[in-house]
Predict the structure.
Amino acid sequence: MATFVAVLPAALPGCASTPEGVLATTTPADLTLLLAPATTTAVGVVELATDGEAVPNVAVQGNDARMSNARTPTAHASTHQNAGTDEISVAALSGQLADPQPPIIGAGATQAVAGNDARLTDARTPLAHATSHKSGGSDAIKLDELAAPTDVTTLNASLTAHGLLQKLPGGTTTFLRADGAFATPAGGAGNTLYARGSFTVATGNFDLMCKRLQLTGSQRATLQGTARLRIT
């Protein structure tokens, strides 16, 4: 039988030893009996656990399958939330989040604008875009779709520029002259169509226009002063 020698501390708790700290025995069984089991506070005999063995007072070996197998972690969502011990930034994630996430409100390039942001409702001067409203522009404005004009003469046609027709004066005795003015024809009341019968024309130059002028024995056409009568 072989002899096993263990060199131990001079004062090993739980077993006897020689002053030199050498404990001799002739069999492994005798050595086991002399050593107390190890605890969390004392050195002693340790029994190694088999793979997957889950009993008290045995030590798990380094190649135990439980040291490397995948497993469901315990609940720890709070550690990944805002201000948690293992906070996760969504900026580093990919794909679509399962639940709607509140946007980050701000004025930055990657931040969202709040619905009550003053910039969404404040008045501002538009950028120059007159060409878009002109003929052929991307947003041309039709003249007949504008609001009704006011009683101003700003856009009236003139001798030097095209424009709008000025406001009509009403009545039936005037006409629009080439200089842009409404006027009564020269000579007074204008050209008058006279019916058959006797009539007197006031002093002035007048055109008597009718299809037929018939003077009977009791009718007369009288010219007074410098008046002229043209019958057409």
